[in-house]
Structures are given as structure tokens and as C-alpha cells.
Amino acid sequence: MKKFSTFVLTVVSIAVATPLCLSQSLPPVRQLGPVTAVSNDSLVAVSGIRALPNGRVLVNDIVGRRVLLLDSALTVVSVVADTTSATANAYGTRPGGLIAFRGDSTLFVDPASLSMLLIDPNGKLGRVMSGPRDMNFLIGGPFGTAGFDPSGKLVYRAPPNFAAFGGRSPGGNGTPPLPVIPDSAAIVRFDLATRKLDTVTYFKTPKVVMNVVRSPEGNVRVSAIVNPLPQGDDWALLPDGTIALVRTRDFHVDFLNPSGAITSAPKIPYSWERLTDSGKVAFIDSARVAIEKQRAAGFAAGLAGAGGPPGVRVTVTADGPPAGASRTPAPNTTTTVTTVGAGAPPAGAPQLPPLQLVSPTELPDYKPAFIPGSTRVDADGNLWIRTTQNVDGRPVYDVVDSKGVLIDRVQLPANRIIVGFGPGGIAYLAVRDGTVVHLERARIR
Predict the structure, then answer these.
(1) β-strand pairing of 220-225 with 209-214
(2) Less Cβ around it within 10 Å: N or C end of the chain?
(3) For 176, which DSSP code?
(4) Environment class of residue 226 by beta-carbon count within 10 Å: exposed (0-12), middle (13-18) or buried (19+)?
């Protein structure tokens, strides 16, 4: 009996001590350093920046379809590319991207023309270069930030290989079959001179489920069923050409150096958050409202930025159950396009497709530590991983060094995300204020 009591006491002691040890091993959450400049021009959505000498910065307004050159005070110096007559250089009809090139030059990726335009440090467009076929995967965002390694090869995430990893799902009710989207993707190196493409490695990507609906009129609509907690690895290219693979399963980093050797770092200490059945339902409910609001803001801004019909207002309504009632099913959240003023769009104006979310039962039992596309690399080669952990309603960035060791935890002010870094301990932030965005420069410390 004494031995059993001792065993129970030991188990209880370990259970109590484990979270304490974890909290002691985690660096304290600190706030980002002071903001030193704010842009004076309203943007629509910033997907990436390119820091230049003397504090200047190129900004890719991916929804407004503009590339701007800002000075050290974040005042617009020139419009590098646009969709209006403000410049002779057209942005293109599809979202583009910025990639740091040799020295202080930058490449603007234009998937619409399958080309890359060279931008010099003064914001002037130069020669046009031919890029790989997979131009859509060079614009950044959820695909990761493409870049050049020290040998001059372009490193980026390739599109899914449907032929190698899947077939086609059967259609039904007169709908066509869809390709089965694989749950992995390749990271490749592309030689601009020889046009040779080499596969470096594969990593896990979130599961994507497509839905096909045929209307009574015979029209077919294909849409993705959104998972607000996608589980997939992330990746980033370090300055020395090493590829960092951030693993979602147990939150650690594998480093693949240019010679092909892989080094696995220890697990990153993290306070995992368990999702109960009721917690999953509540998460889907709140995610639905949040995503609809983001879609509405982006849709309205996109119409304006793309020169769409004037007088467009997008509103979101969320009709939930009475207070105290069950949260199942999720609230009836809809996005509606209405018009105001004399310049109302005609009948048939663009409308947002219905939002479809996965069932609460399809969410994981534990929140993933991060969402794919959340990793950035600072000027010192450290990984900044935006985690799903919230403190006072604001996300926390885990800062991991080139050895895979957690060295810092940083929290940004509200409604901000990191969109890039500059030398000398500088971070650039996109600040969402309603339907507009501003750029801020802040000290890391």
C-alpha cells in the first residue's frame, strides 16, 4: 500500500511539475520595440516588402495592385507599377510578388505575363527576365517567401503534383470530377541561366477539400471548404542558402543545408492548447464571423483597387441563436454586396461566393502551433513564427535561431503582422484599420 501511495504521489508530482517546467523554459513574452515611422499612403493589402539602403523600402500592395517606393520616413517617392495612368508600368491583371535579387536590386514577379521585371535601387524598372512556369507560387503569402540562394538559384515552393500523388475524385449529379489535391508539396531550385529545375525536398501541406455544386441553370461552382486551423509544415530560406522546415506535428525545425545534409533541432517548447468538442464548435463559430469580415473588407477594397464599380459597400451580418442557447449549428453568417451613392454598380456586379467551413469534428484535438505561411526570416537569419497562441487577444511570435533554439517571444500591437525585416534590427508591420492598411517601421527591441 505504501508503494502504491508513493507511485501515485510521484505521478501527481510529475503532472504538476510538467507545466511549471515548461513555463520556466519559455522566454517571457515581450512587446515589440517602438514604432519609428508610419506610411502616409493608404494601402489595400501588403503581402511583402523589400528593404533598401538608406531606409527606403519597396512595398507590394497585392490587392491594390501597386508597387510603391517609400523613403526612410515611409513617404511615397514614386509609383513603380500601377494599374492606372499614374505610371506607364502596368502591375498586371493578377497578384504579383517581390523577390530580393542581386545586390540591392529586386525582381517583380508578374504571373500574368510569365515574366520577372528587374527593379533597381531607385525604383526604376529595367530588363525583363523569363521565370519558371510556376509563377503563381512566387508571390509569397501562404506559399512561403521565394528567394535566391548564394549560388544564384531561385528557391520556392512548387505547385502540387497531381499526377504523382493522386487521381481524380468521382463526380456526381452531373458535376465533373476534380483532381485529388495531395497533402505534400516540393521545394525546388531553379537555375535562371540553364532553366534547370531540381527538387530539393518535400514537406507536408494542409488537406484541401473541394466542393462542386451545379445550379438549376446548369452552372458549376467549384469552391474550397475552408479549415480555419489547417495543419501543414512551413518553410523559409536562410541567408546562407539553408532551407528551414518548420514541422507542424511536434513543432521543431529541420535544417536542409545546400549540400543536402539535414539537421533536426529539438522540439520547441510550447504550451499546447487542447480543443474540447464544445471548444471546436465555438472556434468554428468565431472563425466564420472573422473570416467573413476579412473577406468583406478585402472584397470591397479589391473592387476599389481594381477600378471596380464605384459606390460599393460590403456588409456582414451574423444571426446567431439567442443568448444562452446552444451554439450548434454555427451562426448564419452572410456577406452581402450593397451600393451607395449615385455611382451604384449595375445589376450583375461581382458577388462573394458562399463561405463553407469544415465540420467542428474535423478540427484537431490540439491547436497547431502555427498556420502555414506564418514564418519570416530577419536580417540575422532568425525565424519569426507567428503562433496561434494569443495573449490578451494578440498573437505571439516565437523567434528561433539558426540552430532551431527558441530565443525570444515577441508580441505586436493590435491589428498588426510582420511583413518583412530590414538591417539593423528593423521590422516592417502591416497595420489594418478597417478597409485600409498602413505600413509601420519598428525597432525589434
Answers:
(1) antiparallel
(2) N
(3) P
(4) middle
Backbone angles phi, psi at 265, to 5 degrees: -85, 160
pLDDT in tens, 73-131: 999 999 999 876 556 677 878 889 999 999 999 999 999 888 899 999 999 988 899 88
Rounded to whole angstroms, the Cα distance separating 200 from 162 reads 18
User: Residue 93: how many CB atoms within 10 A of its CB?
Assistant: 13
Question: Which value, to the nearest 10 degrees, does the dihedral of the CA atoms of residues 431, 432, 433, 439 take?
Answer: 30
- Please count the CA atoms within 13 angstroms of the CA of 273 that sit on its side-chain side: 15
Full DSSP string of 323-348: TTS---S--EEEEEEEE-STTPPPTT
Closest alpha carbon to 286 in 326, 323, 320: 320
Q: Any bridge partners for residue 128, and if so which?
A: 117
Q: Measured between alpha carbons, how far is 312 from 40 in angstroms, rounded to an integer?
A: 24
The one-letter amino acid code at 416 reads R
Identify any residues that bridge with 61 across adjacent strands, giving them in sequence order: 46, 66
